[in-house]
Write a structure and sequence with these properties.
Bound molecules: heme C
Structural class: mainly alpha
Distance between the termini: 84 Å
Strand content: under 5%
Order of helices and strands: HEHEHHHHHHHEHHEHHH
Length: 318
């Protein structure tokens, strides 16, 4: 038996060749297999090379794309032979293309990302990109659930950013669909995302994750905020409970706010008293009687200065 893989067995090359008598291009090698030819009029032809044509074969007809390919991070796949030809070069994404090289007129013979559905696109790209911790949750992401594909944000051949093959740089990329978020970053107090200091993707993973709102998690704790505000992480001898139970957004609007320190309410006492009432429904204690809510007592953090937790004082006074 021939040491070559006899793909003629699948039948398609055989029928194609006998019908069309096209010369096989590129790497294809024709081998006459006399045993079969015996029973047939025409010479049966076994294709011994693979259904893969290799990137060189694309150059003649897709010159621009071919010439730009060596600047793409995906060029690397042409030299990494570990996954075999199905993971290499053009065909790593577009699939086996010897058939297409033979018969470019038949759109069925090539995987086109332009006509594929979002789910099909994602599946293709994730064949190589599902292992890293950054992408392994894509299939459960809100983006995926809403039929967003990799190509809503990335382009393999026409990326507009130097990094990450993005079709647009952040924040414009995200605002394409999240118009409603934009005004929040124009509020008087905001994380400087528009200014380029912080990025949407510092807090969110556009590829999804385990936490709600596609938020990223910081290394040791569950809140993304600790990545940059490590001093708020503790542990403290006296913790302020809501930080652990409800997170930073119990008191802060993470994008932007009309109030200093991104506080949710315009008067600080209203924020604190939302929980610290005498009500039996609130797990928080009421305020002591001497907190008479005269102006002096409205700025709670004048006295409760260590509002994120304290190692010295049960009432977080220092
Ligand atoms: C003999 C010329 C020829 C060769 C060689 C060739 N193609 Fe094509 N290709 C075409 C033509 C013609 C079309 C259809 C017209 C178009 O959309 O540009 C096409 C279309 C495509 C499409 C679909 C475009 C779309 O709209 O999504 C892809 C993808 C593609 N080719 C990839 C390849 C790859 C990969 C190779 C190399 C393995 C290759 N082609 C080799 C001529 C060729
Ligand atoms: C990482 C996956 C990937 C690789 C590798 C890849 N392509 Fe594509 N190709 C795409 C995607 C995705 C599109 C849709 C347009 C886009 O996003 O840039 C596309 C579109 C095309 C088109 C349609 C025309 C166009 O400009 O959009 C052709 C032709 C094509 N690719 C040929 C090739 C050839 C030739 C190679 C190798 C030199 C190649 N592709 C390598 C993913 C890939
Ligand atoms: C909603 C927009 C969006 C979608 C959808 C999206 N990405 Fe991304 N991707 C980004 C942004 C923004 C970055 C750069 C910032 C970052 O690292 O998260 C990025 C970075 C990347 C990187 C390089 C950095 C890294 O983390 O390794 C890869 C690889 C990647 N994306 C692959 C994919 C694949 C594959 C898909 C589809 C399964 C996809 N992306 C879908 C926005 C998106
Ligand atoms: C055959 C495997 C394979 C397929 C399929 C594949 N990629 Fe990649 N991709 C790679 C490799 C390898 C790299 C380079 C990683 C590196 O540099 O460490 C890469 C890099 C990237 C990057 C990172 C660029 C950067 O600057 O950080 C993005 C974004 C990306 N791919 C998106 C996609 C998208 C979108 C698709 C589907 C259209 C896709 N990939 C399909 C193998 C693949
Ligand atoms: C400082 C961290 C941070 C940055 C930067 C950030 N976000 Fe958020 N975002 C959050 C948090 C935290 C939530 C969850 C708020 C909540 O649960 O009340 C959120 C919620 C969201 C939501 C869901 C909104 C809703 O009403 O449920 C969207 C959409 C969103 N962000 C988009 C963006 C976009 C787009 C950008 C960049 C322009 C961005 N975010 C930048 C932290 C951030
Ligand atoms: C092509 C459109 C599109 C783009 C681009 C896009 N998103 Fe989304 N995003 C959606 C849709 C659709 C949803 C689900 C409906 C919703 O919550 O608005 C969503 C949801 C979200 C959510 C809310 C998740 C939740 O649990 O409610 C966040 C956060 C988010 N996107 C962040 C981003 C960030 C960050 C970027 C930029 C890197 C981005 N998106 C780019 C379409 C997009
Ligand atoms: C990528 C880093 C980064 C992450 C993640 C981050 N922040 Fe910030 N944050 C900053 C920077 C930088 C400032 C300084 C404000 C400035 O000058 O723009 C800041 C300022 C603040 C302020 C004070 C604003 C003021 O007026 O002094 C608050 C409150 C805040 N962040 C809350 C949060 C919360 C809540 C989260 C999580 C949802 C978070 N941050 C996540 C970088 C970050
Ligand atoms: C119980 C309400 C509450 C919670 C929950 C809370 N904060 Fe605050 N935070 C405040 C108040 C009130 C201020 C303003 C203090 C002042 O102005 O004296 C503040 C101020 C800040 C500041 C700016 C001043 C400083 O101390 O650096 C940052 C940054 C900040 N908070 C981050 C966070 C982060 C990160 C979390 C989550 C780990 C968080 N906050 C949770 C109430 C809260
Ligand atoms: C989301 C609800 C919530 C908000 C908002 C909140 N707290 Fe608390 N706070 C609690 C809970 C729950 C405890 C722990 C139970 C307790 O001892 O009251 C606590 C504990 C305290 C304690 C310690 C009480 C003790 O007896 O040890 C002080 C002081 C305090 N909070 C002050 C404040 C101040 C000042 C603000 C406004 C900046 C504030 N809290 C906002 C829920 C909240
Ligand atoms: C002038 C300083 C000052 C201001 C302003 C102030 N507090 Fe206090 N607060 C204290 C002191 C001192 C204690 C401790 C009393 C004690 O030792 O029993 C305390 C105790 C508390 C306690 C604990 C009650 C308990 O049962 O142990 C809560 C809750 C509290 N304050 C909430 C608030 C809130 C909410 C505000 C703003 C509306 C506020 N405080 C403003 C000084 C202040």
């Amino acid at each position: 038996m021939s040491p070559f893989r006899c793909l003629g067995l699948s039948g398609w090359i055989f029928s194609k060749l006998t019908q069309q008598r096209r010369p096989l291009l590129a790497l294809s090698v024709l081998v006459l297999f006399s045993g079969l030819a015996h029973g047939q009029d025409k010479a049966a032809v076994w294709k011994t090379a693979s259904p893969y044509a290799g990137p060189e074969a694309c150059k003649t007809c897709h010159e621009d794309i071919y010439n730009n390919f060596d600047k793409s991070p995906h060029w690397k796949t042409t030299v990494d032979k570990r996954g075999g030809p199905s993971k290499q070069g053009c065909e790593g994404c577009h699939g086996a293309a010897a058939g297409h090289v033979d018969d470019p007129g038949d759109p069925k013979k090539i995987f086109s990302f332009k006509t594929a559905s979002a789910k099909e696109v994602n599946q293709r790209c994730l064949e190589c990109h599902s292992s890293g911790k950054d992408h392994m949750n894509f299939s459960r992401s809100v983006h995926n659930e809403n039929n967003i594909s990799c190509l809503n944000c990335h382009s393999s051949h026409h990326g507009m950013t130097n990094e990450h093959l993005l079709i647009k740089a952040q924040t414009d990329l995200c605002y394409t669909c999240h118009q409603k978020i934009k005004p929040q970053f124009n509020m008087p107090f905001h994380h400087r995302v528009e200014e380029g200091l912080v990025q949407c993707s510092d807090c969110h993973n556009p590829h999804g994750g385990f936490i709600g709102k596609q938020l990223r998690s910081a290394a040791a704790r569950d809140s993304v905020c600790f990545t940059c505000h490590a001093d708020k992480q503790g542990p403290f001898v006296f913790e302020h409970l809501p930080i652990k139970t409800e997170g930073c957004v119990a008191c802060h609007s993470p994008h932007g706010s009309p109030n200093p320190r991104l506080i949710k309410t315009s008067n600080l006492n209203l924020l604190c008293l939302k929980c610290h009432t005498a009500s039996t429904f609130s797990p928080a204690s009421g305020t002591p009687d001497f907190h008479n809510q005269a102006a002096q007592y409205q700025s709670c953090t004048i006295c409760h200065a260590a509002i994120h937790g304290s190692n010295f004082d049960r009432h977080m006074l220092k």
